[in-house]
Write a structure and sequence with these properties.
By secondary structure, the protein is of the alpha+beta class. The protein contains 18 helices and 35 strands.
């Protein structure tokens, strides 16, 4: 589990609280409310006032998960007192029956009868409702209550100790199990009576009492209050993937460039997520995690033909990424930050398919304008303009939009304007286009290659742009092309290298391996160490065949208790009919394939 930083009352998280005997579950929550300055808390299964042990408390938006956590199996250590039965089956009641004290061997011999699925009659003194009233309330009114037996499951039961008339028993069981009733029924199988003397809950699903706070804080000592509050604040936990899966949900990772869309409730699309290989299609809830492993909320999915309709359950906002992303509509409608506009901006415009050596020279020119107090930004398109103009013959982009955004972030840009090219946008005249950037974005510096064109049909080249710049008062810088092995570096050249399997040449121009972004791919397991998926997105693929690759995958390891962004493993990758098949020599794959690098 990873600790969540407590900064304000709007936080969400999980508190593992060691409830003390003598307190009700409800009153125990008041400590969490005070410590975290919140009223939005919920526990996931009550403990009777005489009992102690683990309470899993959900805070903020995680209270939506109460029904899931409540369904977890639980483990208890029960102290059973033989020879007397109380009306409540616990130490708070009145003795109504007495009987013999069984031998240790008798108790041990009957315990196996309670393993597996069994019928259990709940205690009459319980919170179960009969005709709209709690059974316990009816009993206190002197009325007779008869409850029907219910199916429960005991996964393990063992005798830890037997002394005089007391048996200490450890039980792991399903939701709905009453340990008081179990004590009654064990005694009955021994031909006698008993009641529950003490009860301690030690586990709820993956959560353990040993990790809980408050065990050393006495509710009778006010001096311990602040100590408990401090422990709660410092041990607020994040939701993790292990818990999500135990809650019966799929898991998915949100690609970083979609954080703003997700946080602002924009329409959900499958391409926004890296999916969990371990997921089953019949699950209708998906736990969403951000790229750094933090829990982002829950979405729902409904079958709709061959696809799923995705809808929001709830969202836990993540801090916006350093790179602020805007659409063209936002720019036109005056949604660009006023502080950026006042400072003035340095911008470069292009498809930037690959962020190769030539692009980097342009990027460096723009970033250098920070020294002149200009805010560096980039204007780009969701895919290469060649893909828009010649979709039938175009082989594909060198990089995905997510990879492009990642490159911009690494270079230190403050913002990116991302345009989904349309015929309407294509009709904007070059001067009008640049004037929008000057008026709405505070453009003061523009860096481009010598062959740059913009505007309707690309009719405005660099010479005319320089004249427009003089009129609109911004500086234009022409960046020379970068030559590699006697030829100009370009996205087209890199694309040809990939299609000709010349990955080493592509790597020299990209300064990194050609990498296929696997966001949105639906991976399936095949055999022990193979997975396959149909290729999605606008990126190009090398020719069919088998390649040596490095596969990066997300691994939020539960062993260390800390999220690890992603790890890498060598793999053979076979491409055939638009499908990818990965084979591993080990079991490193965790189910969230991030990308594939071709060597």
């Amino acid at each position: 589990m990873k600790k969540n930083k407590n900064s304000d009352s709007g936080l969400s998280g999980i508190v593992l609280l060691a409830k003390q005997a003598g307190l009700t579950s409800f009153s125990s929550l008041s400590s969490v409310k005070r410590a975290l300055s919140t009223t939005k808390v919920g526990h996931t299964g009550t403990l009777d006032s005489f009992a102690d042990g683990l309470l899993v408390v959900l805070v903020g938006k995680l209270t939506h998960l109460v029904p899931h956590i409540t369904n977890f199996d639980k483990t208890y250590i029960a102290l059973v007192e033989f020879g007397s039965e109380t009306d409540t089956l616990d130490p708070t009641g009145q003795i109504i029956k007495t009987g013999k004290i069984p031998a240790r061997e008798e108790v041990e011999s009957v315990l196996p009868k309670f393993l597996g699925e069994i019928d259990q009659v709940p205690p009459a003194y319980s919170a179960l409702h009969v005709d709209g009233k709690r059974a316990s309330d009816l009993m206190r009114e002197g009325k007779t209550v008869e409850l029907q037996a219910r199916k429960i499951t005991i996964s393990s039961i063992k005798l830890l100790d037997f002394n005089d008339k007391f048996a200490r028993i450890e039980v792991s069981c399903s939701k709905g199990t009453y340990i008081r009733s179990l004590a009654r029924d064990i005694a009955s199988a021994c031909g006698t009576v008993a009641h529950l003397k003490e009860l301690k809950r030690t586990r709820v699903g993956p959560f353990k009492l040993e990790d809980a706070v408050g065990a050393d804080c006495s509710p009778k000592n006010p001096a311990d209050d602040e100590k408990l509050y401090s422990q709660i604040r410092s041990h607020l936990l994040d939701m993790d993937m292990n818990v999500a899966r135990l809650c019966g949900m799929d898991a998915a990772i949100l690609a970083p460039r979609y954080i703003s869309d997700f946080n602002n409730g924009r329409p959900l699309k499958a391409k926004m997520f890296v999916h969990d290989l371990n997921s089953d299609n019949d699950k209708n809830e998906v736990a969403v995690f951000y790229d750094d492993g933090k829990f982002g909320g829950v979405i729902t999915k409904k079958p709709n033909g061959n696809k799923f309709l995705l809808n929001y359950g709830f969202v836990i906002h993540h801090p916006e990424p350093k790179l602020k992303i805007f659409s063209w509509e936002q720019i036109v409608n005056g949604k660009f930050p006023e502080e950026f506009k006042k400072s003035g901006t340095a911008i470069t415009i292009g498809s930037f398919d690959g962020s190769h050596l030539g692009h980097r020279a342009i990027f460096d020119s723009v970033i250098a304008q920070k020294e002149n107090n200009l805010v560096p930004g980039v204007l780009t398109f969701t895919r290469s303009l060649r893909g828009y103009k010649n979709p039938q013959s175009y082989e594909g982009d060198v990089v995905s939009l997510s990879q492009k955004i990642e490159n911009f972030t690494e270079h230190g840009f403050a913002f990116a304007i991302v345009i989904d090219f349309s015929s309407e946008f294509g009709r904007i005249e070059g001067r009008d286009f640049l004037n929008v950037l000057v008026q709405n974005c505070g453009l003061k510096y523009l860096a481009e290659g010598s062959d740059f064109h913009c505007g309707y049909k690309g009719l405005v080249g660099m010479e005319e742009i320089k004249n427009i710049a003089a009129d609109l008062d911004f500086v234009v810088q022409t960046i020379d092309s970068v030559i590699f092995e006697g030829e100009k570096v370009s996205s087209s050249r890199i694309r040809s290298c990939v299609l000709e399997r010349q990955f080493h040449q592509a790597q020299k121009m990209l300064l990194k391996n050609f990498e296929l972004d696997c966001t949105g791919f639906n991976w399936h397991k095949q055999g022990k160490n193979q997975i396959y998926a149909a290729k999605k997105g606008a990126q190009l693929l090398p020719p069919e065949g088998t390649y040596k690759t490095i596969v990066s995958f997300y691994d939020f390891s539960q062993k260390s208790g800390e999220a690890q962004n992603y790890r890498a493993a060598n793999s053979d990758c076979t491409l055939e009919n638009g499908n990818l098949r990965l084979a591993f020599s080990d079991n490193l794959i965790s189910g969230f394939v991030r990308s594939i690098q071709f060597l």
